[in-house]
Amino acid sequence: QPMAYGTRHFGSRLLFAPDGTLLITLGDRGNREWAQDPALDPGSIIRILSSGEVPSDNPFIQSGPKRAAVFAYGNRNPQGLALHPGSGEIWMHEHGPRGGDELNRLQAGTNYGWPTISYGQEYFSSAPIGEGTHKPGLAQPFHYWVPSIAPSGMTFYSGKDFPAWKDSLFIGSLKFRLLVRLELGAERVLHEERLLAEQYGRIRDVRQGPDGRLYLLTDEQDGKLLRIDPL
Length: 231
What we know:
Elements: E1 11-16, E2 22-26, E3 44-48, E4 70-73, E5 78-83, E6 90-94, E7 101-105, E8 143-145, E9 151-156, E10 169-173, E11 178-184, E12 189-195, E13 203-208, E14 214-218, E15 225-228
Antiparallel strand pairs: 1-2, 2-3, 3-4, 5-6, 6-7, 7-8, 9-10, 10-11, 11-12, 13-14, 14-15
């Protein structure tokens, strides 16, 4: 709520957390101001039980029923949600405007800043968005991209076929038509590698299969399901 009838910023990634709760990412639906109102659903991360009920430990549950399901907010268009297989941390990425795509750890009660702060800029005027890139109380991204890569789909690799990629985070790029591999440190990205550039088109999703291989889904009228095998 509220209902929106636009054609952009849907977000909409689903993930069951280790505690059994269901996390749902919602884009701001093109209404920026909604993302800074935790009483509204768009531009937020929703956390519910599989029954549809709200967990009793949600961060805003004491603030009334309109805020009870909100787990975090201040998001523009989150299209990546993944569970780290070792630490159990949940990671999220989202589209910025012209620049400012973000990678973040998902943490309860966090305001991720959109549109008050952003590393992106307006599409047509190139003007800064909001109040700059920093403001007390608003989270800084763990990592951001300028220019935007247009991230979509995300997974951690935990298989055995690619030992050098163990615990790497893989993200599809729509804009540059490639696959991004990140090695994560405690506080920053240690290394970024860009794979398969312009070979197969827009990478909409990336998943690890039960066989330990990586599978990619391309975004086009005649889309492809691709498997990455070891040499």
